[in-house]
Amino acid sequence: MIRIENLSYAIEGKEILRDITLDVPRSGFTALIGPNGAGKSTFLSLIARLEPLQTGSIHIDDLQIGQCSDRDLAQRLSILPQVPDQPPRLAVRELVGFGRYPYNRGRPTSDDGAKVDHALSVLGITDLAQRSLDTLSGGQRQRAQIAMIFAQDADYVLLDEPLNNLDLAGTRTLLVILRNLAEQHGKTVVMVVHDINIASRYADRIIAMKEGRIVRQGAPDEVIDKALLHDVFATDAMVLSSDFGQVVLV
Amino acid sequence: MARRLWVMAGLLALFCVLFMTWNARGPWSFLLPFRGTKLAGLLLVGMSVSTATLLFQTITQNRILTPSIMGFDALYVFLLTLAVYLLGGMTVVHIPPQVTFLMTAGTLTLAALLLFGTLLRTTKSDLLRMILTGIIFGALFRSLTSFLQRMIDPNEFAVIQVASFARFTQIEVVLLALSALITALVLGRIWLIRNRLDVLALGRTTAITLGEPPRRLELEALVLIALLVSVSTALVGPIAFLGLLVVSIARLITPTEAHSILLPSAALIAGLTLVGGQFLMERAFRLSTPLSVVIDLVGGAVFLILLLKGVRR
Amino acid sequence: MTTRHTFWAGLIGLTLLSFLSLFIGVIDVSPRDLISDQETFELLVISRFPRTAATLICGSTLAIAGAIMQMLVRNRFVEPMTAGTGQGAALGVLIVTLTMPSASIFTKMTVASLVALASSLGFLAIIRKMPPTQPLLVPLVGLIYGGLIGAAVTFVAYQADLLQYIGVWMNGEFSGVLQGRYELLWIAAGVGALTYLAADQFAIVGLGRATSINLGLNYSQVVLIGLIAFSVVSALTVTTVGMIPFVGLVVPNIVSRLAGDNLRRTLPLVALMGAGLTLICDILGRILRYPFEIPVGTVFGVVGAALFLWLLYRRPQHG
Questions:
Q1: Which residues numbered 56-115 in B keep a CB inside 8 Å of some CB on C?
Q2: Which of B11, B126, C89, C314 could form a disulfide with C116 if both were Cys (CB 3.0 to 4.6 A apart)?
Q3: Whole-number Å distance between alpha carbons of A36 and A193
């Protein structure tokens, strides 16, 4: 469980997060939604210890952010970073291999090799293994990054808007993989996402943020309604109920 | 904005008078021509360096470039060294300096067209490559120069040594008239096309839309830049940061994109920097360090600060 | 050819080159004289061997320093010698020479390393403020930053009448290397070798801060270690033989093109190629204008710039 208590955060005097207390239960697919500037990305990067905490505390199971060792945490929690503009000249397999770094500190065992191969095959990029990242398309690079996270085999997987740069097929593939991670591998996936319909269709749980606060949380059917769109997104869009969950007519 | 130009012009005039008359010991018949040539040289260099830099920033649409960073003046010194190496130092000494100057300036113009003309044709996304190429060319020319200098007889070496260091104290008098003529012609031409340059500064696509095809104008600007760089390098040698410094300050003092304002503004600031700087260094503080070193120091610092401020904004 | 094959082939080539280097110079030496003639043997021990060793150490460690800096800054077009570290080292020596003229060479090295480190930290602080969307600014800012510190050094030296010393630090030359005057370079060699232990960490840092933290790396610590490593290497090189530009820029770029960015695999190759290219340039400098010498910095300036341009305009490799 990710337990967040009294979390506040300010940048140059401007409050980004205001006194957030929240539990994200173990396993399952959680989507973090909200308008631009709601503080979603900051919230996620604080959980991933990319930025130092100011007030409040975050626990990942028994590990407290800022207190526990980086290495222990890296085996428990992973975050998908933005794909770098200038890709390194690493073979895909080398990049994915770095996912095992928290375990082997650069001295890979045969077990690590097997895990890397498994990650490559789950993401369907086994045939790209020896290709250099700078020769791949944006979508392929994204998959390689996700394969690295997969090989890292952490219980908690955080993703900050991973669907940018992906076309329709790529988006679907990634979402199916993330669902699988949650359903079959028992991982806890937390994803910041812009598209409410995607959140509604794939997530088990939605957390809506506005102005640095959590305003709604729960199953998609409970959270997504006309009131939410009006209050949080300040827009009056229609919401249809369908067999595939709530659909917002943008 | 025009008022600021007048204020700067007034200041520059004041410094010029101070420069000519301060601490005058000795007959005026000696002092006036002696200091006069120096002053004329400083003003000429100021105008050509600032104008060349501004023009270069316009055609590359980049505010942190200067012909000097791109290796123009290094190329000039290299060409001169090459001439000494190929012809022999004694021969070069016997050729009148005007002829050497014209030859080197001509070759520089050609080389600049070849090198940077092809580079300019590359797309905007390739700007990084172009800038790096310029920087590397600069380093290459400097290394080649010192390489050739080692290959040349030490006696002949003295001929070039004079050319490879920026010096404001001894300005080649013989070149002054010729330089003044070239600078006047080039500046006149630039003044005529100032409005077209404004359009070019908006970017290629916009320039084409507005009916001002960029190709020819860019090439013409390159030729004019090469001529201006030749003048200033021949007169005082390479100075790295002067252009960058004065154009950046000009953009601060007269914040506009119009060349009709920026050109005189940058030229005035360059004049103020050189005449004022030389006056203070030589007469007031009696420092032994050459002005070019101080300009590099102050210019580099100011430029870094401007860059960081601009980026943060 | 795999990286490993390339490495061994290169190592054999480098050994042959080093052997050659021992027998090129103003005084003719042939391997046969070595056995029969005591004087020849002494010449070899006092001058030729130290010179060759110094060349190999400087070349390899500067290339490693460049590779590490490029990873830390995440930009392929920087190197310590042009982005302020080398100039910082020169400033350090200048400060010691001015304030403590009788200081030991070891003190000089320490101060030079510290000032070089401070100067590199300054560069990193500036780079942090730059938007990542404009990678071309980084090398440009580095160049101006380095030029600025260089101008400060020249200014102080002019005022203190030390311009001649500056010339020695600013333009690298191996002709002055003799037994007893280069041994501190072995420290640089040690530092260079030690960096291999952290090769993985540097490669991960090259993937960015978020990825590094995600993989459990102490990001700031690794960056600091890298900074110290390339500052010490630069400072030692500047104080013993002077600045040699381009080694740290060209070599890592060539290796990255040919063999990728996985430093665990490529760092030995970087060291090997740095040593080889520098030695070739030094040998060229010795024979081109025999019996005079052309400084290695000058030769490498020409060779390195040409190589770099070739790299820049070579068609990008795919597949």
A1: 64, 69
A2: C89
A3: 11
